[in-house]
Amino acid sequence: MSDLHPHCKLWISSDTSDGSFGTAKVRLLEAICQTGSLQEAARTLGISYRKAWADLQKAEACLQCQLVEKTRGGQGGGRTVVTDQGRRVIRAYSVMKGIVLQGLNQAFDGFVQEVKS
User: Fold this and answer.
1) Closest CA relative to residue 42, chosen from 62, 68, 16
2) How many other C-beta atoms lie within 10 A of the C-beta of residue 61?
3) What is d(CA 96, CA 92) in angstroms, rounded to the nearest whole number?
4) What DSSP letter does each residue of 9-57 carry, written as one string?
5) Going from the N-terminus, what domains does the chain have, and what CATH number goes with each?
6) CA angle in degrees (0–180, nearest 5) for 29-90-27
7) Which burial class, exposed, middle or buried, applies to 1 when counting CB atoms under 10 A from its CB (0-12, 13-18, 19+)?
8) How many CB atoms lie within 10 A of CB 115?
9) Are 55 and 96 in contact (CB under 8 A)?
10) Going by C-beta distance under 8 Å and a sequence separation of 6 or more, which residues neighbour residue 59?
11) How far is the C-alpha of 80 from the C-alpha of 58, rounded, in Å?
12) Is 40 in a helix, a strand, or coil?
């Protein structure tokens, strides 16, 4: 059984909105932090600008907070900045995911012990 590993997908959803928030949206926010641009972040992740923008709107609706501040393009070009709240969301999600994975691994160890006995 040493070749078996547990897996799970973790996301946050709301009973009152259609949006959700999970690993893909964390990656999008992290890419925006690195590039300073929603368009560049989308390109880096291999998704369209339209999908990236829609994902951000859904995440903000789900979490009920502003994750990015966007400045429209002009002569110098636009930019997108992750807000302080957005950075806190990234950190909190990472902590939560670590706790969930730790619990998953403990539960899996119990599963393996039960199956072997």
Assistant:
1) 68
2) 16
3) 6
4) --EEE-SS-S-EEEHHHHHHHHHHHHHS-HHHHHHHHT--HHHHHHHHH
5) 11-116 (1.10.10.10)
6) 40
7) exposed
8) 9
9) no
10) 19, 20, 21, 25, 67
11) 17
12) helix
What are 19's two structure tokens? 């949006």
Phi-psi region of 6 (alpha: psi -120 to 50; beta: other; left: phi over 0): beta
Task: Kindly report the number of other CB atoms within 10 A of residue 59's CB atom.
Answer: 24
- The half-sphere exposure of 42 on its side-chain side, counting CA atoms within 13 A, is 15
C-alpha torsion sign, points 30, 42, 53, 72? positive
Token representation of residue 1? 């059984």
Distances (CA, A) of 91 to 4, 26, 85, 98: 29, 9, 10, 11
pLDDT digits (tens, 9 = 90+) for 80-90: 999 999 999 99
15-56 pLDDT, tens digit per residue, is 988 889 999 999 999 999 999 999 999 999 999 999 999 999
Structure tokens that stand for 93 in this block: 């999600």
What is the C-alpha separation between 2 and 112, in angstroms, rounded? Answer: 9
Average pLDDT over residues 106-116: 95
